[in-house]
Write a structure and sequence with these properties.
With about 70 residues, this protein is an all-alpha fold. It has helices at about 1-25, 40-55, 65-70.
Length: about 70
């Protein structure tokens, strides 16, 4: 049980760090491309609002690919 909790905590911390890094790059005027499946809309939403807040364009590209090709 504790290992699962540690894993979730680490995952959340990694997401937090990624968002912070994205913000830092935007403050420097750099373009940002994120490569992630963002499985849930809630995972994409912070980046959408960050882009909007800093007047960045926001877009998503979806690929419909068979699992066998992806693995």
């Amino acid at each position: 049980w504790k290992e699962e909790l540690d894993s979730v905590t680490a995952w959340r911390k990694a997401r937090e760090i990624a968002l912070e890094n994205c913000l830092e790059e935007m403050k420097l005027g750099h373009s940002v491309i994120l490569d992630d499946n963002f499985y849930y809309r809630s995972m994409r939403k912070p980046y959408y609002w960050l882009a909007k807040e800093h007047r960045y364009e926001y877009g998503e590209i979806w690929f419909n690919t068979d699992v066998e090709i992806c693995v």
